[in-house]
Amino acid sequence: NEFRIVSIDDDKIQHILLKKRVLLIDSSAQVFPFEEPGSAMDFLSSNQTDLIFLDLNFPGISGWDLLQKLKEITDAPVVVLTGNISREEQEKISEFPQAIRLLEKPISNDHLSEIFEFLKS
Q: Is residue 103 a contact partner of residue 77, using CB atoms and an 8 Å limit?
């Protein structure tokens, strides 16, 4: 069974990096990239996914608001990515049990392998 992964980030380069790294670990994984949170939400409300990568910073909407909305449409685990982890973010992430990790971008191969192990268990 192949992993279906949704990536929500307004930075195209992050999608390219993530997809490359994911495919190195699991060449059968499917990555669905979305630069616009609204279209990601539409996709998720009618498609099954195993994992979501979510950037915290978007023009016009915060990643925290997105996390709140995600909770209403999917129970897939979320990995929150940010350029620079603040103490405030570390505290806030604990309010979202669906968020399994808070990591700095770009995600490392080690972190990604760890997440895949977690998903398989």
A: no
46-62 residues labelled b (16+ CB within 10 A) or e (exposed)? eeebbbbbbbbebeeee
The total of other beta-carbon atoms located within 10 Å of residue 111's CB is: 16
Whole-prediction pTM value?
Answer: 0.95
CA 75/CA 121 separation, integer angstroms: 17
Q: Check: CB of residue 93 under 8 Å from CB of residue 102.
A: yes
Evaluate whether 99 touches 93 at the Cβ level (below 8 Å): yes
Contact 14, 7 (CB under 8 A): yes
Q: What percent of the chain has pLDDT over 70?
A: 99
Give CA–CA dist 88/94, Å, rounded: 10
Mean residue pLDDT across the chain? 94
| 23 vs 95: CA distance, rounded Å | 31
